[in-house]
Amino acid sequence: MRTKSEERRQHIVNVAAGVFEEVGFDKASMAEIAQRVGGSKATLYNYFSSKEELFVAVMDRSAHRLMGSVFDHLERPGPLREVLVNIGVQYIEGLLSPDMVAFGRMAIAEGDRSDVGRLVFEKGISKGWGKMRDFLAKLLAAQGRADVDAMTAAWHFKALVESELREKRQLGVYRDMPPATTVRTTVSQGVDLWLRGYGLDADTVLSATGKDQPR
Length: 215
Prior knowledge:
By secondary structure, the protein is an all-alpha fold. The protein contains ten helices and three strands; from the N terminus they run ααααβααααααββ.
């Protein structure tokens, strides 16, 4: 059960998300956010020491929703290729959603002006993909590839399933979510390249615990 303080913090994050989406990070102010929350700036600073920290909390909220649904697939049994494709599709559908695209653009724009980009990477992206690293570490070890750095393998997987989709969405080539068939085809191609690159058996059947099962 959440305390009133936790509920208040979440309310601030939700309100701030709306402000950032409306006016962008640069034009958003703690005063405006405090006004919409219904309190003073002093109250806001009791929860967040800076606008940057608040923005990272907003990104973390969105990333948690995205990665939580993605990594639900890690617990599901099935052929390895099928499991990885489903993970990739779920990830891309979240990554290219309107709010994630908007916040991603803001973080990139702030990269050279503040610590926002670094904090988003360290507390959001890197932390989230650590779960994929743990999953891949077990998988690689089971298939005789314990020599492979699992975090590197996770970054390679991420890059391959994103392929050209992320750039096209971020740059506005895709104004909306790409067609589902395009997403699945691109992700499938990325997964196939990843499996071949690491020399893994695509037909390996995973149990509900993520361990290999005899075919």
